Amino acid sequence: MLDVCAMSKSFGGLKAVSEASLTVSEGNIVSLIGPNGAGKTTLFALISGFLKPDSGAVTFNDAGITGQRPHQICHQGLVRTFQVVQPFAGLTVRENIAVGAHTRIAGRAAALAAAGEIAQLVGMGTQLDQSAGALTIAGRKRLELARALATGPRLLLLDEVMAGLNATEIADLVTVVRKIRDSGVTIFLIEHVMQAVMSLSDYTYVLNHGAMIAEGQPSQVTKDPNVIEAYLGHGAAKRLLEMEAGADA
Amino acid sequence: MEFLGLDLPSYSWQTVLGSAISGVFLGSIYALVALGLTLIYGVLHIINFAHGALLMLAMYAVFFLWKLLGLDPYLAMLIVVPGAYIFGYGLQRGVIGKASHGRDEIILLVTLGVSIVIENAALFFFSASERSVLVPYDLDGIDLGVTYAVYPELIALGGSLLITFALWLFMSLTDTGKAIRAVAKERQGARLVGINVDHIFAVTFGIGTACVAAAASLLVPTYAVHPQIGYLFVLIAFTVVVLGGMGSFIGALVGGFLIGVTEQLGRLYLGESMGVITISVIFILVLLFRPTGLFGQRSG
Amino acid sequence: MTKRERILGWAFIVCVLALAPLFITSNRWIDFLELTLFVAVLGQGWNVLGGYGGQYSFGHAVFFGTGAYIQALLQYKLGWSPWLTLWFAISGTTAVAAMIGYLSFRYGLRGSYFALITLAFAEAFHVVSRSWSSFTEGGQGVQLTLNQDPALALATFQFSFGGPFMKAYGFYYTILAILMISYAATWWMEHSRFGAQLVAVRENEDAAEALGVNAFLVKMRAICLSAAITASGGVYYVQKFLFVEPGIAYGTAKSVEALFAPIIGGLGTVLGPLIGSFFIHGVGEIAKEAIHGVFGDRPGVDLILFGIILVLILAFAPRGLVGILERVWIRLKARGDA
C-alpha cells in the first residue's frame, strides 16, 4: 500500500534521513522504532507532504505522492497525526473532529454527527462539548487520533500516540488501535512504548541516525544486535550475550 | 534617457552623486530609527507598531525643551534619551507585556492600540499644526563640490554611526548586552540560567525607544513636528528592517543607507511623490521574495 | 444558547433596527445610527478575514477605498447607473483582494508580516490614487453631481432630494440592507464547511493541512469575502456623500475603524462587529459630550478612548463584549434555574 524508496533529507550539514526504504502492506499494523533523534518524525513528515525530500520517492496505492501537499495526500487516504499534539484549542472536541470529517462530508450537520460517532469509537463520547484546550494530554492524543480517523483514511500514520500515557491509558488505546485496523484502516506507527509495539505490530522497521538498520517481526528485531546497540550503546549487544552466557553457566 | 521604457530626465553625474550623498545622510537617520525596531524584533520577536508614535512623542519632547527652555535639540538628547528609555521600559513592563499574555497576534494588536492612543493624545494636546525648531546653524554647512552638506545632516550621519557603534559595544561587552543576546537566541534557556526575561524584554524595549529618541533629536532641526510624522517614518523604518533583515544591526545600517539613496534617486528621476511609492514597492517585493532580508537570521 | 433563543435574539435585533427610524425623529440620532451600522459593516468585513481567519489586516482601507473609487469613477467618467456600478465596485475590489491574497498567501506571509504587507498595499494605493491624477482626479478627489430631481432619486441612488421618507431614511435603510446581507453571508459562512475549515486554519494551519484542508484556497476565499463586504461599505459611502478622495479612501482612519469594532465586540462572531460598533460609538458620543464641556471641540478624543478600550479588552476580555455578554447570560440563566 505504501512504498518508500531510498528517501533522503538533509538540513544544512545534518543528514536527517538517509536512503530510507520501507513497505507497508494493506491491513497491517507496521511500526517504526528507533532511538530519539533517529529521524522518525522527519520521515513521517516527508511521507505526508510536510517536507520535500532531497531524493527518493513515495508511492501510495500505486500512485506517486512525492512532493504533493499534505491536504492533497490526505484526500488520497493517507493521514498523519503529530508527535507534539496540535489541537484546535479554541474549538470543542466535536468541532475539532468535524474538521476531519469535512474531508469527505460537505454538510455541517452531517459532519458534526459523524464527529460524534468517531468520538464514541475512540472513547471520547462524553467529552464532545468540552473545549479542546482543556483536555488532558491523554485526551488530546485521543482527539488527534479521532480527527485523523474522521477523514476516512486508508492509511493512518500515528506519531507517538502513546507517549505520556499511563499503563491503563496505553492498554485502552492499544485496543482502540486494533479496533481501527479491524475496521479496514492500515496503520503505520512511530512508537517508543515497547509494550504497544510488541502487542500491535505485524512488522517493524528500525531507524537510527536516519538510516534503516533492521526490519522484521518485532520479536526478532528486538533481539537484533544492531538494534540493541542503537538503543543501549556500542558494545552493549556483546555484553548482554556474555551476561546471558554467564547466567546459563 | 530610456530606462525600462520610461522616459527619464538626464542629469550630470555630479547631480546624481549629490543626490546619492544626500540619500546617505537621510539614510543614516532611517538606520537609527530602524535600529530600535530591529533590536526589539530580534529579542521580543514582535514588530513594534508603536515605534512611529514613540518617535513622534520624542520629537515633541525635543521641540518643547527647545521652546520652553531654549535647549539646543542636540543637547536635548541628554535628557530625552534617558527619559525615553524609562518610558519604553515602563511601557513594555506595565502595558504591552501584561496585556499580551505572551501571544504574538495579541502583541501585534496591543502595540497598534498603544500607537493609536499616543498619536491621538498628541493630536488632542498639541493640535495638528506643525511646529518647527529654528537653530542658528541649520543653513550653514560644508561645500562638498557636488552638493552642499548642512551641519544638521553631517551631525545626523555622525550621530547615527556613533550611536550604532556604541550600541554594538554595549551588546558585545556588557553583561546586560550578553543577557539580551541570550534571550534573543534562546528564551527558555536564558530563563533556565536565571536571566529575568521580563526585565530583559523591558530593557530591550527601553533601549529601542531610546534609539528612537536619539533619532528624534537628530531629526528635529530639519523636520517639522506634527502628530502624523511618526507614521511617515514608520513605514520607512519597517522597510529598512525588512530589507536589512530582522534583528540585524548591520542590516539596519545598510538597509537605511540603501533606502535613503533609493528614495533620493527616486525623487530625482521620478518626481517628488514617487519617493514614497518606490519605498512601498521595495517593501512589498522584499516581503514576498526575501522576507529574511539581506542579513536576517529569522524568517516569517 | 439554544436554537430557539438564538432565533429570538436575531429577530429582536432585526426588528429593533428596522423599526428604529419610526421612533427616532432627530436627524442627529439617525446619522449616529447610520454611522454605527456603516462601521459595523466595515468591521464585519475585517472580521471575516481577521476574526474567523486569524489573518490580521492593518490596511483594510484598501478594500473600502477601491470599492468607493470604482463606484465613483464609473459614474463620474462613464455616466453609468449606480445600480450597475455597484456590481463592478464589489467584484473589482474582490479581484484586488485576490491579487493581494495570492501574493501574501502564496509566499506564506503570516502574522506580523501579513499585517505589514496589507499596510504597505494600502499606502501604495493611497499614493497612486493621489499621483495618477488623470485616472483618479488625484488629490482633489471625485465629486459626483448631486441629483435634485425627486423623480430620479431612486434611479440615481441619491435620496437627499427624494420624498420626505426617502430623504430622512433612505440611506439608513440602505446601510441596514447592506448590513443584513453581509451579516447573513457571514452567518452562512460560519455554519458551512468553509467556515469550519477557515477556523481550523486560524487555530492551527499545519494541523488543518494534515486533515485535508487546502489552507491557501481557504484563506483566498476569506479575503475575497472580506473585501466584498468592505467594498459594499464603500459603495454606501460614495452614494451618501457623493465625494471620495485619496485620504478618505485609503487613509489609516478606515483601516483602524475596521478593526476596532470586531476586536472590541468579539472576534469570530457574527454579532461582534455590530455590538462593538454600538459600544465604541456610544462611548464616543458620551466622551465627546463630557470633553466638550471641559476642553471644547478637539479632535482625537474618541480615538484615544477606543485605543485604551482596545488594549483593555485584549488584556482582560479577549473574547470581546460578546464573550462578556455570554458569560453574563449563562450566569443569569443559572440563577434563574436555581
Give an overview of the whole structure.
The complex is a heterotrimer of chains A (249), B (300) and C (338). With 249 residues, chain A is an alpha/beta fold. Chain A has 10 helices and 10 strands. In chain A, the strands form 2 sheets. In chain A, strands 6-7-8-3-9-10 form a 6-stranded mixed beta sheet, with helices on both faces. In chain A, helix 3 packs across helix 4 (108-122) and helix 4 crosses helix 5. Chain B is mainly alpha-helical. Chain B has a domain at 37-243. In chain B, helix 1 runs antiparallel to helix 10. Chain B is globular, with a radius of gyration of 19 Å. Chain C is globular and about 60 Å long. Chain C has helices at residues 3-23, 27-52, 61-78, 82-106, 111-131, 133-136, 164-190, 193-203, 205-210, 215-241, 246-250, 252-265, 272-295, 301-316, 320-337; strands spanning 142-143, 243-244. Chain C has a two-stranded antiparallel ribbon. Chains in contact: A-C, B-C.
Give short descriptive properties of this protein:
heterotrimer; B: 300 residues; mainly alpha; two-stranded antiparallel sheet; 3% strand; C: 338 residues; ABC transporter involved in vitamin B12 uptake, BtuC; two-stranded antiparallel ribbon; 15 helices; globular
Write the layout of secondary structure elements.
The complex is a heterotrimer of chains A (249), B (300) and C (338).
Chain A: E1 2-11, E2 14-24, E3 29-33, H1 40-48, E4 55-60, E5 63-64, H2 70-75, E6 78-80, H3 93-101, H4 108-122, H5 137-150, E7 155-159, H6 167-182, E8 186-190, H7 194-200, E9 203-208, E10 211-216, H8 218-221, H9 225-232, H10 236-248
Parallel strand pairs in A: 3-8, 3-9, 6-7, 7-8
Antiparallel strand pairs in A: 1-2, 1-4, 4-5, 9-10
Helix pairs in contact in A: 3-4, 3-5, 4-5
Chain B: E1 2-3, E2 6-7, H1 13-44, H2 51-69, H3 73-100, H4 104-126, E3 141-143, E4 148-150, H5 151-173, H6 175-185, H7 187-192, H8 197-219, H9 229-244, H10 249-270, H11 274-289
Helix pairs in contact in B: 1-5, 1-8, 1-9, 1-10, 2-3, 2-4, 2-8, 2-9, 3-4, 3-8, 5-6, 5-8, 6-8, 9-10, 9-11, 10-11
Chain C: H1 3-23, H2 27-52, H3 61-78, H4 82-106, H5 111-131, H6 133-136, E1 142-143, H7 164-190, H8 193-203, H9 205-210, H10 215-241, E2 243-244, H11 246-250, H12 252-265, H13 272-295, H14 301-316, H15 320-337
Antiparallel strand pairs in C: 1-2
Helix pairs in contact in C: 1-7, 2-7, 2-10, 2-12, 2-13, 3-4, 3-10, 4-10, 7-10, 8-10, 12-13, 12-15, 13-14
